[in-house]
């Protein structure tokens, strides 16, 4: 059919394959006419024509909806609550300056400084949002979105963006439909059109032409943005990119609101509360300083300054930095976070339900045993290279021929000297093709001799797959699957030179052989066939009265890195539960190898036993602290177990790769999909995607997730402790009857903006503490501002406040000048306020070092292991020196030069919070050791 003639261009308005005008007539055409209309054929497009079409129609991508322009993003920074409050505050200060008699330059400086806060905050916020968005885009691009198409008869795997009208797409359960297509071949094909129609039940697809109906209702079409949920088939693309129905809807859709995570909400609400408190404290300051006799305007400006200084403006931005650094670190370690929520949940994960194949193991299957009745045959060779030996027996060849015919995977030879043989498709099937090749069988030739006429695809609920072939002697069903499921459908055997009914002894022998292979950790499949009368049997017919040919056992070695990761999870108080569709013996053998099972008596629960259990029994089973394996389970069981763990208050991470894992992935606190081998549906449903599929990456993500939370607490303690250091001296001076403030509002702003922002950001980027995985998971209900956090803020802030107050009073008192004689211009006063400011800056430098660890000594992590923090602290000190020594800055801040002794005293006092905190940590460590029964 592929004439190669230049018929009306597919995708153009004439044949309606694209554009927003008349919809394509393809649903009404018989299959052959569809190919003609789209100028393509069953063999797919020739490569050159596909390239032309890609050029003509552009990439199969949707224009990004809902992205704000840079200007709008920047503008938004000035309209959030804090910014508005600050802008109003600055306006009032300017007004106060205008009304003041005589005018004080300090007032206008304060007004400008407040505006400076707004601009700086906006800049940080904007930079953060911008980089977070860039990160999100980069991460999105890392999630593979490939599809299988036929081009010139050749089966290829292409990025979905390269698909063009006329491409023949191969569809399987779990695939995301890459473009709008007309179905030309369907094997129990069903899709979920929910993204387009809102109805989330599976709808079957046919190949028959349909009468004129709205395109979305055409049962012979599949659409971009939807998923194949069952069966498989082929379809021809008729619209791509923005021309698809999905593209049309996306154009109509308004920008989705950005969702904030509970942590962000917690911080935002806390920041609001602190702002309220700042307002109250500002009012309090106004009230307490009223007796000093200052003018109302002066007092008002001062109170406003204090209030502005106390507002934690930088907090939300620092939080975003911390989260986005966490996300980037995880991506570097192969864990892509799709929803920020997962970062938080990871930190409090209590249970990980993990698949076996690919996650704990390498998913590099090699058939090592073939069992045919009385005889067991070893197979040599490793990996997917089809070289090795297998017994040259007719019954082995027949078993492998049938198994090979019942496969959709394809072996791809290496293209370069450093490459290896690869499998395109299911690795279990890849292993079967390899062993068939080792037996001298050529899949192409076998398929040509017995072309496939229909297929009942594998699904993990049924655990079987069947293909029907036309042979010289009629039709034949080739069936492979889990031995238990397949044996139940067999009535005959053909092995050991015997062909006849399957006896009780045969059955027992097959079960024993299967168990023996499984207990070696091998994945076991049984293979059978039957003769059929016609090409299109119903499934029950094709999968009954089968003749059993034997079993194959395939090895899938554990991933070497998993054992350590499992041990780390154990230490971190996280329970690892294996959930597999495989045989209990295979599951247990693998679980033992990776350390999930260490005791002799693990609890192995099969899907059948789960079915027989009510929720109460299941709950009490999960409550036992046993080593638990769930074997021969289907995705529905997985969902039930996740829900049961959650009922018990667990925070559950669950892995999944198949389309029917989607509900469990969505329901879990952290749905983890496989980037390399998983289906598109699973990846869409998940909140985290593992690029390397390895369990070890989950453990790493948990570690980094815990670190993010810890870091947030670190900078909270850091940022809030200096507020105490600023407020207490002011209150003390007022109550002591000192007529001036020990630290002015502009000085407070200089600390907030000059010396505190950068170290807070550097704390948000701290690497995980080495003992982060030696503690139990954080309770999901634990507040960010826990008693421990507030206690530490008061502890560190209190010491700092005591030190700087002492410095102030010592300095103003040592000269014997009466308090009432002090004016703003008294040198001793200028020196004293400079010392208070420098005292806080130095103390904050040491504070930053001490908050780096919760319980460990700072010396254990090393004083220089966060160079960014040292640089940020160093910058703050240099700025302070400039404020003390440079005349223009002295004029602004009313400061005076400090001498070396002053600096030395301040530095000495600044270390006090650090030393006191070290003593507190040592006490905590000793207490923990005592609880554990002696030091470790
Ligand atoms: N492509 C296939 N065709 C037929 N049978 C298969 C196929 N793949 C697996 N099986 C059989 O079905 C059983 C369950 O496989 P399934 O892929 O559902 O397990 P799973 O839950 O993904 O396992 P795992 O936990 O190892 O990832 C296997 O033990 C095997 O006997």
TrEMBL record:
InterPro entries: ATPase_P-typ_cation-transptr_C, ATPase_P-typ_cation-transptr_N, ATPase_P-typ_cyto_dom_N, ATPase_P-typ_P_site, ATPase_P-typ_TM_dom_sf, ATPase_P-typ_transduc_dom_A_sf, ATPase_P-type_domA, Cation_transp_ATPase_P-type. Pfam families: Cation_ATPase (PF13246), Cation_ATPase_C (PF00689), Cation_ATPase_N (PF00690), E1-E2_ATPase (PF00122), Hydrolase_3 (PF08282). The chain crosses the membrane at residues 78-99, 105-127, 270-290, 296-323, 784-812, 832-851, 858-883, 903-923. Keywords: ATP-binding, Cell membrane, Membrane, Nucleotide-binding, Translocase, Transmembrane, Transmembrane helix. It is a multi-pass membrane protein. It catalyses: ATP + H2O = ADP + phosphate + H(+). Residues 1-30 are annotated as: Disordered. SUPFAM superfamilies: Calcium ATPase, transduction domain A, Calcium ATPase, transmembrane domain M, HAD-like, Metal cation-transporting ATPase, ATP-binding domain N. It is found in: Cell membrane. Belongs to the cation transport ATPase (P-type) (TC 3.A.3) family. Type IIA subfamily. This is Cation-transporting ATPase.
């Amino acid at each position: 059919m592929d004439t190669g003639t230049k018929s009306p261009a597919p995708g153009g308005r004439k044949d309606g394959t694209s554009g927003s005008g008349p919809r394509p007539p393809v649903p009404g055409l018989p299959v052959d006419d569809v190919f003609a209309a789209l100028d393509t054929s069953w063999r797919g497009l020739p490569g050159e024509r596909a390239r032309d079409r890609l050029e003509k129609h552009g990439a199969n991508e949707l224009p990004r909806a809902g992205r704000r322009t840079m200007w709008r993003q920047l503008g938004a920074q000035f309209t959030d609550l804090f910014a508005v409050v600050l802008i109003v505050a600055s306006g009032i200060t300017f007004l106060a300056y205008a009304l003041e008699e005589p005018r004080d330059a300090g007032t206008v400086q304060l007004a400008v400084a407040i505006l400076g806060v707004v601009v700086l905050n906006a800049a940080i916020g904007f930079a953060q949002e911008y980089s977070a968005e860039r990160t999100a885009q980069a991460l999105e691009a890392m999630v593979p979105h490939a599809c299988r198409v036929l081009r010139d008869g050749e089966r290829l795997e292409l990025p979905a963006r390269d698909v063009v009208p006329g491409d023949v797409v191969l569809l399987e359960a779990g695939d995301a439909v890459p473009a709008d297509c007309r179905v030309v071949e369907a094997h129990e094909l069903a899709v979920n059109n929910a993204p387009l129609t809102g109805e989330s039940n599976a709808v079957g697809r046919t190949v028959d032409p349909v009468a004129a109906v709205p395109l979305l209702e055409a049962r012979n079409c599949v659409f971009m943005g939807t998923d194949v949920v069952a069966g498989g088939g082929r379809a021809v693309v008729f619209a791509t990119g923005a021309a698809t129905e999905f593209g049309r809807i996306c154009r109509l859709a308004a920008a989705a609101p950005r969702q904030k995570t509970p942590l962000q909400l917690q911080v935002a609400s806390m920041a609001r509360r602190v702002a309220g408190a700042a307002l109250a404290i500002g009012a309090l300051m106004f009230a307490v300083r009223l007796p000093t006799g200052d003018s109302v305007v002066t007092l008002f400006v001062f109170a406003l300054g204090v209030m502005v200084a106390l507002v934690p403006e930088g907090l939300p931005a620092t939080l975003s930095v911390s989260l986005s650094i966490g996300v980037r670190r995880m991506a570097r370690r192969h864990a892509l976070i799709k929803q920020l929520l997962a970062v938080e949940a990871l930190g409090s994960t209590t249970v990980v339900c993990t698949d076996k194949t690919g996650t704990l193991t390498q998913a590099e299957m090699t058939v090592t045993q073939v069992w045919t009745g009385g005889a067991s045959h070893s197979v040599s060779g490793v990996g997917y290279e089809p070289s090795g030996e297998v017994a040259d027996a007719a019954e082995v060849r027949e078993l492998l021929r049938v198994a090979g015919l019942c496969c959709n995977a394809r072996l791809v030879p290496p293209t370069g000297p450093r490459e290896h043989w690869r499998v395109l498709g299911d690795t279990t099937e890849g292993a079967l093709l390899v062993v068939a090749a080792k037996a001298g069988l050529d899949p192409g030739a076998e398929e040509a001799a017995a072309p496939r006429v229909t297929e009942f695809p594998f699904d993990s609920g049924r655990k079987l797959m069947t293909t029907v072939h036309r042979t010289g002697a009629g039709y034949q069903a080739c069936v492979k699957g889990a031995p238990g499921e397949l044996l139940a459908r067999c009535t005959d055997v053909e092995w050991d030179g015997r062909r006849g009914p399957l006896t009780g002894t045969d059955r027992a022998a097959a079960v024993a052989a299967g168990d023996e292979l499984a207990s070696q950790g091998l994945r076991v499949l049984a293979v059978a066939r039957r003769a059929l009368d016609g090409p299109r049997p119903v499934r029950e017919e094709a999968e009954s009265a089968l003749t059993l040919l034997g079993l194959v056992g395939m090895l899938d070695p554990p991933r070497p890195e998993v054992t350590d990761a499992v041990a780390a999870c154990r230490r971190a108080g996280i329970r690892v539960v294996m959930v597999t569709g495989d045989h209990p013996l295979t599951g247990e053998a693998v679980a033992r190898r990776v350390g999930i099972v260490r005791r002799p008596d693990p609890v192995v629960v099969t899907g059948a036993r789960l079915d027989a259990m009510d929720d109460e029994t299941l709950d009490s089973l999960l409550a036992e602290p046993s080593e638990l394996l769930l074997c021969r389970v289907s995705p529905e069981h997985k969902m039930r177990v996740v829900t049961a763990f959650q009922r018990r208050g667990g925070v559950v991470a669950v892995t999944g790769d198949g389309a029917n894992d989607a509900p469990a992935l969505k329901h879990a606190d952290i749905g983890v999909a496989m980037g390399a081998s998983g289906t598109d549906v699973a990846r869409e449903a998940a909140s985290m995607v593992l690029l390397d599929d390895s369990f070890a990456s989950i453990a790493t993500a948990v570690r980094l997730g815990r670190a993010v939370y810890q870091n947030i607490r670190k900078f909270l303690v850091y940022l809030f402790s200096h507020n105490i250091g600023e407020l207490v001296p002011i209150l003390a001076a007022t109550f002591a009857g000192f007529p001036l403030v020990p630290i002015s509002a502009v000085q407070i702003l200089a600390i907030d903006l000059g010396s505190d922002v950068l170290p807070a950001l550097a704390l948000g980027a701290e690497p995980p503490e080495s003992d982060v995985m030696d503690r139990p998971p954080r309770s999901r209900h634990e507040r960010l501002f826990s008693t421990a956090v507030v206690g530490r803020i008061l502890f560190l802030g209190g010491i700092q406040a005591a030190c700087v107050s002492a410095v102030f009073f010592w300095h103003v008192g040592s000269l014997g000048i009466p308090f009432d004689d002090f004016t703003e211009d008294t040198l001793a006063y200028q020196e004293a306020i400079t010392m208070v400011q420098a005292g806080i800056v130095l103390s904050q430098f040491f504070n930053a070092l001490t908050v780096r660890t919760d319980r460990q000594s700072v010396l254990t992590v090393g004083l220089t292991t966060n160079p960014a923090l040292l640089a940020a602290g160093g910058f703050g000190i240099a700025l302070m020196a400039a404020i003390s020594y440079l005349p223009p800055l002295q004029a602004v801040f009313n400061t005076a030069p400090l001498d070396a002794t002053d600096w030395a005293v301040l530095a000495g006092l600044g270390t006090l919070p650090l030393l006191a905190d070290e003593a507190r940590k040592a006490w905590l460590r000793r207490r923990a050791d005592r609880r554990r029964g002696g030091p470790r």
